[in-house]
Specification:
CATH class: Alpha Beta
Number of domains: 1
Shape: elongated
Strand content: 15-25%
Largest sheet: 10 strands, mixed
Number of strands: 12
Number of helices: 10
Strand order of the largest sheet: 5-4-3-6-7-12-11-8-9-10
Structural class: alpha/beta
Length: about 300
């Protein structure tokens, strides 16, 4: 069976190139606002491209209703109203094998339970609010899914037009970030990929010449990146992947790279030397999600 996005590609001994991955099940987490339309369109497009099943999940957050009012004054049943909206106001998924799940509850719980039950290969969702001049507001659901979901999480920011052409894999060269690299190679092949690494040293502010430090460190960092690529993807694939190594904090440098090169997608894992996603959420991983202007695919490393 082909490797899926829920089970990142692994390389067997003697392989010269990582095998391709496939998606067989997509879960869309939507709040039914206008902002989530981009995630809806992306999920439908992915399901069509991969001939995958699509599960559309919406959580109706429970609210207290006065019990002393007649039923006609309490408004429509929110679960029924949301299901009706999905069925009639969201065209485009005709012909797909699609299921709709709408139920009352906390969004994090509802989405995680649905995705886990279906053993989904990919969760797709949007952000709370876009800020063209600063950090996007991710909302509460994105950090929760990035921290807890077993399947990769695609956070959609751009309006989908086509499959990603330019993909950057953000890696700190530890085992925890290898998951992102395996996933990217398996999904897109090596020809579209750039490996990005932001390197630094303790107490860099005490170093006199920053440019000299960067020139001195970059060659060894690039060689380390190249070794990681060979190990993760094989020699043939590694030769096709560009390496970008820059001195400084990952998120702002990566955000500028996305703008300069018109990057379509950033793929990242548990980005950080500690490898602890629970600690890093709200730090580097969330900084990348908030600051880059393109879609972000987060691949969480499963606990060993």
């Amino acid at each position: 069976m082909a490797a899926t996005m829920g089970n990142p590609v692994t390389r067997e001994a003697g392989m010269t190139e990582a095998p391709r991955a496939t998606i067989r099940h997509v879960t869309l987490a939507t709040d039914l606002t206008a902002r989530s339309d981009r995630a809806f369109d992306r999920a439908v497009a992915l399901a069509r491209r991969w001939h995958a099943k699509l599960l559309i999940v919406h959580a109706v957050e429970e609210r207290q209703h006065p019990t002393d009012q007649p039923s006609w004054r309490r408004g429509a049943d929110p679960v029924r109203a949301a299901r009706s909206k999905l069925q009639f106001d969201y065209p485009g998924w005709e012909g797909l094998e699609t299921a709709i799940e709408v139920r009352a509850g906390d969004p994090e719980t509802v989405v995680l339970e649905a995705a886990g039950r279906e053993n989904t290969d990919l969760i797709v969702t949007g952000i709370s609010r876009e800020d063209l001049y600063g950090r996007d507001e991710l909302g509460a659901l994105v950090p929760a899914l990035a921290r807890k979901a077993l399947a990769p999480l695609l956070v959609v920011k751009k309006r989908p037009t086509a499959a990603p052409r330019r993909v950057v894999v953000a890696s700190d060269l530890t085992d925890t970030s290898h998951t992102a690299l395996h996933l990217a190679v398996g999904l897109f092949g090596p020809g579209r990929l750039t490996l990005f690494n932001a390197f630094d040293i303790p107490y860099r502010g005490l170093v006199g010449d920053r440019d000299e430090l960067e020139r001195t460190m970059r060659p060894s960092v690039i060689e380390e990146c190249r070794a990681v690529l060979v190990d993760a993807a094989g020699t043939t694939a590694a030769e096709q992947i560009e390496i970008v190594a820059e001195l400084g904090a990952p998120a702002p440098i990566l955000a500028q790279l996305v703008l300069d090169r018109d990057i379509d997608l950033v793929v990242t894992g548990t980005y950080g030397r500690s490898g602890l996603m629970d600690v890093l959420v709200g730090s580097t991983a969330m900084d990348i999600l908030a600051q880059v202007s393109c879609d972000v695919l987060v691949a969480r490393r499963k606990a060993s």
